[in-house]
């Protein structure tokens, strides 16, 4: 006699559930998958929104390179995929422009701080500017302009520097070297500034051989 359990189809040899039963059983799984997909989509949207906020805050302070913004996003835990999408969009609308950034940086830092091309190249590299882009921007600063700026810096520093001519000379050359000027440019600029200051300084400057001293070590 067939047991009631077997007739009910609920034993170890029970038949597979009917189509309607299978659909009912699968419904919760589809619901979970849909919920997970919705959650992932919302998370991506939230992450992209955070990335945009981070970029806007950074750009509100001053222009930034793409590399600087990418580093800021990494620090906030933004994934590389989301960061790329956001930064690509900012590139498209012109909110990121490394070439324009480099030109403005070179102009402002040379005029404002008197930095030479060598120092400016280092700063651009630290900010992630591509080598060719940096080279193009630095090309707008020519040798004559750099020499004139070095001379002006030396003259200004000389007005407030006291001491023996030799010590003053080394101090001024060291100041220009820290701003990225080559030894030859720095020495010639200081020599010209000394020559214009006084008869004594001019006499000392006359004895300076800029070419011969271009490889000397100067005091910091």
UniProtKB/TrEMBL annotation:
Disordered as annotated region, ranges: 1-47
Domain spans labelled RecX first three-helical: 51-89
Pfam families documented for this protein: RecX_HTH1 (PF21982), RecX_HTH2 (PF02631), RecX_HTH3 (PF21981)
All residue ranges annotated as the RecX third three-helical domain in the record: 144-189
Domain (RecX second three-helical) ranges: 97-138
Main location: cytoplasm
Cytoplasm found in the keyword field: yes
Localization: Cytoplasm
GO biological process, one term: regulation of DNA repair
Swiss-Prot/TrEMBL keywords: Cytoplasm
Record's compositionally biased regions (Low complexity): 17-28, 36-45
A GO cellular component annotation in the UniProt record: cytoplasm
Family, as annotated: Belongs to the RecX family.
Reported function: Modulates RecA activity.
Stated name of the protein: Regulatory protein RecX
Record lineage: Bacteria, Bacillati, Actinomycetota, Actinomycetes, Micromonosporales
Gene name of the encoded protein: recX
């Amino acid at each position: 006699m067939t047991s009631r359990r077997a007739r009910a189809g609920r034993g170890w040899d029970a038949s597979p559930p009917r189509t309607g039963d299978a659909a009912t059983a699968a419904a919760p799984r589809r619901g979970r998958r849909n919920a997970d997909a919705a959650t992932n989509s919302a998370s991506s949207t939230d992450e992209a929104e955070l990335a945009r906020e981070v970029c806007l805050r950074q750009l509100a302070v001053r222009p930034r390179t793409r590399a600087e913004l990418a580093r800021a996003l990494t620090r906030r835990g933004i994934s590389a995929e989301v960061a790329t999408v956001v930064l690509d969009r900012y590139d498209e609308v012109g909110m990121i422009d490394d070439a324009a950034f480099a030109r403005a940086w070179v102009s402002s830092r040379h005029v404002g701080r008197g930095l030479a091309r060598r120092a400016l190249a280092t700063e651009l590299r630290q900010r992630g500017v591509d080598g060719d882009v940096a080279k193009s921007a630095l090309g707008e600063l020519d040798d004559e302009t750099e020499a004139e700026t070095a001379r002006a810096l030396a003259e200004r520093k000389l007005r407030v520097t006291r001491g023996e001519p030799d010590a003053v000379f080394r101090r001024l050359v060291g100041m220009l070297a820290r701003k990225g000027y080559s030894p030859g440019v720095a020495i010639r600029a200081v020599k010209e500034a000394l020559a214009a200051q006084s008869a004594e300084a001019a006499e000392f400057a006359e004895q300076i051989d800029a070419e011969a001293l271009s490889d000397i070590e100067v005091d910091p």
